[in-house]
Design brief:
12 strands; 37% helix; 334 residues; six-stranded parallel beta sheet; alpha/beta; 2 domains
């Protein structure tokens, strides 16, 4: 079967959708799995064993281009090219996991005779259900979005014997992660505690001073080495957290998603805000502590047996006490 998964954004949501790709691959290794995704998030799917082909659905750039007549002409040209490419793939099934109008349009462009999505009451944008012909109602016991996503396999009669999240393996990134930790004197006997201080929305960010205080306490734990991990454009935050640690923490500014994955593979414990890399850590099976304030983790939080969530009692991130996080971290390290 030739199947398209439509999930354009964002990183954490893509991680949760990987369980769908894994179930399709596990059910029949000969399934040809295509994923339609935004440009920025596509690196999660390259070199990924669960995906055979990645197709970029550039909704972000199209929105910008549509502001000018020349840009609108370019969008029409690219839309036709994408339509021709998807038609040539001769897809049998398309699964709209996102449930938005923009994802529904890409689902329609697949020309797949079977188009699966959430029913009107359960799609994020109800009108998106008009573009599908198999509409799913998640079962009552499905709480987390991972479970909702997997319910979309029901029209295909595909069981889910296990839930897993395949992630890319890029040898160059793996080697860089190993070399850098070795340069900082990290040995196989050390326990790497990775702190993820960044997030895309300020209300979801635990204060940098709190991360610094946590790092100061954790470096006193036997054989613990502290890694501060951020992505491109977050170097200023890295400096704020590292300030005053006097080189006792290893600052890392990763250049790609696959590089983030490589460093997380080497962690014994990860502590972070509600952000994509936190979900990557949980997907890898690394013990993970998620810090939550205004958002609720029951539906969209990190998923897995090695996850602990600390929720702010006031929904304000600054009201999460360092002592509370430290106590849970020490439990994991023991």
């Amino acid at each position: 079967m030739r199947i398209a998964i439509v999930r354009l954004t964002s990183l954490g949501d893509l991680v949760h959708t990987l369980s769908v790709a894994h179930a399709l691959r596990l059910h029949n290794p000969d399934n040809y799995i295509v994923w339609i995704v935004e440009e920025q998030e596509r690196t999660l799917l390259l070199n990924n064993p669960a995906v055979d082909e990645v197709v970029v659905g550039p909704a972000r750039s199209w929105r910008r281009q549509l502001r000018t007549p020349r840009g609108a002409v370019q969008v029409l040209r690219e839309l036709k090219e994408l339509n021709d490419r998807l038609r040539a793939l001769r897809l049998d099934v398309a699964i709209d996991v996102q449930g938005l109008l923009k994802s529904a349009i890409f689902t329609l462009l697949t020309h797949a005779p079977v188009r699966i999505g959430f029913g009107r009451r359960y799609a994020r944008e109800p009108l998106s259900s008009l573009f599908t012909n198999h509409r799913v109602t998640p079962p009552p016991d499905a709480v987390h979005m991972v479970e909702w996503n997997l319910s979309l396999l029901k029209p295909l009669g595909i069981p889910v014997p296990e839930i897993a999240f395949p992630l890319p393996h890029v040898p160059e990134d793996e080697a860089r992660a190993s070399d850098l930790l070795q340069e900082h004197g990290v040995t196989p006997q050390d326990r790497v505690v990775t702190l993820i201080p960044a997030t895309r929305r300020l209300p979801k960010q635990w204060p940098p001073a709190s991360f610094r205080e946590l790092a100061e306490s954790l470096v006193r734990e036997p054989q613990a080495r502290i890694l501060l991990l951020v992505g491109p454009g977050e170097e200023r935050l890295l400096q704020l957290v590292a300030q005053g640690l006097d080189g006792r923490a290893i600052p890392i500014s990763a250049t790609s998603i696959s590089e983030v994955v490589a460093f997380l593979r080497r962690a014994h414990l990860v502590v972070g805000n509600d952000t994509g890399p936190l979900h990557l850590a949980a997907a890898l099976g690394v013990p993970t502590i998620g810090l939550y304030g205004p958002t609720r983790p029951e539906r969209n939080g990190p998923y897995g047996p090695q996850v602990r969530v600390i929720q702010s009692p006031t929904e304000r991130m600054e009201d999460i006490r360092v002592e509370t996080v430290l106590e849970v971290a020490k439990e994991w390290l023991r």
